[in-house]
Amino acid sequence: MNKFQAMAQIMAILCEDAQLNPKSPVYKIVRLAVSQRIDIFGPDATLARVIDRKPQILNQIKVLAQWQARGRLLPALEF
After folding, report:
1. 2-35: per-residue pLDDT in tens?
2. pTM score > 0.85 for this model?
3. Is the model's pLDDT at 47 over the cut of 90?
4. 74 has a pLDDT exceeding 80
5. Which of 8, 13, 7 is nearest to 55 (CA)?
6. Helix axis angle, 3-15 relative to 43-52, nearest 10°?
7. Mean pLDDT of 46-59
8. Are 46 and 6 in contact (CB under 8 A)?
9. How is 5-42 classified by DSSP, letter by letter?
């Protein structure tokens, strides 16, 4: 699997619950975090990490959205 394929699969997994809007700043932050993780761990390992940690990642995305809605600086996404 290459980086593009992994990114598409991971974002599809994270968008299943309709929490992420592709036009939102939070979506862009999540894509950047996923891209960085793919560069560090590789596509297959990053996909596995997202699948294993999906509930925790979605909770972090909720927090990011709340911070963004209040106009504050967004914390980093960790997984």
Report:
1. 999 999 999 999 998 777 888 888 888 889 999 9
2. no
3. yes
4. no
5. 13
6. 10
7. 94
8. yes
9. HHHHHHHHHHHTTS---TTSHHHHHHHHHHHHHHHHH-
Give me the sign of the Cα torsion angle 74, 8, 6, 11: positive
- Choose among 32, 26, 29: nearest CA to 7: 32
Q: By percentage, how much of the chain surpasses pLDDT 90?
A: 48
**What's the distance, CA 32 to chain centroid?**
8
Size (the chain), residues = 79
Q: Give how far the C-alpha of residue 69 lies from the chain's centroid of Cα atoms, to the nearest Å.
A: 18
Nearest 5 degrees, angle CA 20-CA 32-CA 68?
50
